Amino acid sequence: MEIIVNLDVMMAKRKMSLNELAEIVNISLANLSKLKTGKVKAIRFSTLMAVCDALDCQPGDILEFSKGE
């Protein structure tokens, strides 16, 4: 089981760069990059809300649950 982060997909749909999103969300580029690549183990709801607000999407558009194989 794992949580898959689709932040890169939403950023591409909204044509938003990592730098632009980091500035809007007020999060470091390094931390946003870790989130984008799925290298984080947790995310604050406040950060998730800010990302969803910036990308005009729902949390489910960014995070996906997979049972794996």
From TrEMBL:
Classification via InterPro entries: Cro/C1-type_HTH (IPR001387), Lambda_DNA-bd_dom_sf (IPR010982)
Annotated CDD domains: HTH_XRE (cd00093)
Every HTH cro/C1-type domain range: 7-62
A Pfam family: HTH_26
Record GO terms (molecular function): DNA binding
Database matches in PANTHER family: DNA-BINDING PROTEIN, DNA-BINDING PROTEIN-RELATED
UniProt protein name: HTH cro/C1-type domain-containing protein
Organism: Kordia antarctica
